[in-house]
């Protein structure tokens, strides 16, 4: 007697399954429940774990070989930096970004360089034809492309077949939302299809020690489209950001099992493709004007390098009942705290002032080392004090108005000296711990925000 096929309703946002359709999912989203058939896995199905027939055996941790030295050089220094030194063999890397930001351009450039060094590379595209990829490769890639193979396909079973015949050293899937498996009856991009295709790619990568690059779509809010299951499956999650009408592109890592997530990579979009930016601080500071009100240079330590940039602030009398607080690159909660400290400890009355803060270049720095620069920029804009383009300020502001020390201040000071700064304002604890001060730069240690404001009046 044949069994009836079961169906469930699966949320395309969070993956929640329900036996009945409902308008709103438990995650709060509306009209995301899609009917999907439940596929029963047989005992002899190859998708089950442990299909070799042998009894599973645990291994000693000391007997397992480390993968620290099995990295592949992508040929792109900034990409290697974000990945932690290169691609780990057998790893799955997910990259996302806005349409037209340059994901496919960076991937085809990396694929071409890996093909020259390590052999065959298979580029699978479900969105573009082979002719379109060839046109892009001719424009942005240089060198021999004999080892780069293209495949325009969306069926996962056929992709696996081609991969087994070709046995590439590197596999690229563009994109996971367009792929589907015959074992599922749902549409491509659904929770079941993404899960099935992701598991198949993980089997390829881990089983045959092949690094796999997976491209994913994003929603209008900039988040990864589809369920979170794909982010849990992969080893590294990269995000490519930037404005399409500007040249600067920033590559960040939100998850990395083989390295840090604090590194960033910088690129510039040119006609011949993505060009690496070696001196990122210079590109952020080149438009900084001397004598501008509400402008202050600051720095953060990103991964293994200090990053210098400009903070701009503007205060204006409010024209409505409540004053506005707008920030780009700074958390609004952090901005409100800094404004409260300025009102209480510096005597500023900002209740009837709109306050706007912007990190030039579209950066969103982590940490609290930029607090002092934000406060000085707001104070300078409110009081009409001209800023100095050769002065840099770092430090965390406490609720009592004191300045807390920041990490890697010595390296930030060295980078500031290299970039031509003549004065650095920083917490007194950091100033007393500096082992050596580069020539031509003045180090000023301050204890509180009030002391830093007094220096702003003297410059």
Automatic annotation (TrEMBL):
BP term (GO), one: recombinational repair
Record text about domains: The middle region has homology to RecA with ATPase motifs including the RadA KNRFG motif, while the C-terminus is homologous to Lon protease.
Binding positions (ATP): 97-104
All copies of domain RecA family profile, residue ranges: 68-218
SUPFAM superfamilies in the record: P-loop containing nucleoside triphosphate hydrolases, Ribosomal protein S5 domain 2-like
Record region (Disordered): 43-66
Residue ranges annotated as motif RadA KNRFG motif: 255-259
GO molecular function, one term: ATP binding
Gene it is expressed from: radA
This protein's name: DNA repair protein RadA
Keyword Ubl conjugation: no
HAMAP family: RadA_bact
Function: DNA-dependent ATPase involved in processing of recombination intermediates, plays a role in repairing DNA breaks. Stimulates the branch migration of RecA-mediated strand transfer reactions, allowing the 3' invading strand to extend heteroduplex DNA faster. Binds ssDNA in the presence of ADP but not other nucleotides, has ATPase activity that is stimulated by ssDNA and various branched DNA structures, but inhibited by SSB. Does not have RecA's homology-searching function.
GO cellular component, one term: cytosol
UniProt-annotated stretches for the region Lon-protease-like: 354-459
Similarity section: Belongs to the RecA family. RadA subfamily.
Key words of the record: ATP-binding, DNA damage, DNA repair, DNA-binding, Hydrolase, Metal-binding, Nucleotide-binding, Stress response, Zinc, Zinc-finger
């Amino acid at each position: 007697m044949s069994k009836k096929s079961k169906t469930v309703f699966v949320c395309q946002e969070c993956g929640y399954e329900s036996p009945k359709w409902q308008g709103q999912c438990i995650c709060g989203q509306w009209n995301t429940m899609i009917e999907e058939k439940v596929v029963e896995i047989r005992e002899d199905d190859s998708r089950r774990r442990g299909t070799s027939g042998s009894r599973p055996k645990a291994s000693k941790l000391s007997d397992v070989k480390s993968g620290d030295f099995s990295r592949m050089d992508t040929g792109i220094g900034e990409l290697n930096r974000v990945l932690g030194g290169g691609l780990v063999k057998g790893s799955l890397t997910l990259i996302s970004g806005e349409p037209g930001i340059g994901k496919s351009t960076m991937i085809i450039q990396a694929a071409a360089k890996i093909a020259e060094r390590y052999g065959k590379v298979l580029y699978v595209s479900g969105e573009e034809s082979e002719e379109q990829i060839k046109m892009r490769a001719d424009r942005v890639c240089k060198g021999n492309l004999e080892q780069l193979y293209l495949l325009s396909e969306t069926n996962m079973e056929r992709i696996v077949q081609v991969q087994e015949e070709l046995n590439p050293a590197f596999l690229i899937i563009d994109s996971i939302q367009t792929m589907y498996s015959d074992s599922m009856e749902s549409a491509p991009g659904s929770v079941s299809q993404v899960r099935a295709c992701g598991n198949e790619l993980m089997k390829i990568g881990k089983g045959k020690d092949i690094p796999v690059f997976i491209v994913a779509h994003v929603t209008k809010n900039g988040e990864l489209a589809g369920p979170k299951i794909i982010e849990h499956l992969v080893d590294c999650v990269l995000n490519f950001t930037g404005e399409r009408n500007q040249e600067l592109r920033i590559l960040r890592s939100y998850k990395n099992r083989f390295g840090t997530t604090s590194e960033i990579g910088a690129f510039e979009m040119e006609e011949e493709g993505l060009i690496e930016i070696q001196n990122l601080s210079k590109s952020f500071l080149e438009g900084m004007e001397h004598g501008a009100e509400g402008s202050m240079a600051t720095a953060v330590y990103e991964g293994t390098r200090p990053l210098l940039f400009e903070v701009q602030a503007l205060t204006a009398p409010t024209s409505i009942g409540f004053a506005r607080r707008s920030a780009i690159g700074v958390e609004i909660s952090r901005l409100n705290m800094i404004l409260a400290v300025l009102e209480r400890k510096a005597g500023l009355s900002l209740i009837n002032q709109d306050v706007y803060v912007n990190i030039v270049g579209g950066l969103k720095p982590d940490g609290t080392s930029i607090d002092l620069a934000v406060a000085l920029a707001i104070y300078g804009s409110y009081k009409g004090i001209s800023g100095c383009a050769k002065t840099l300020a770092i430090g965390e502001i406490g609720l009592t108005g004191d300045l807390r020390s920041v990490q890697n201040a010595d390296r930030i000071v060295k980078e500031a000296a290299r970039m031509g700064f003549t004065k650095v304002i920083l917490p007194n604890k950091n100033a007393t711990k500096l082992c050596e001060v580069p020539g031509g730069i003045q180090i000023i240690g301050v204890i509180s925000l009030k002391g830093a404001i007094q220096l702003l009046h003297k410059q």
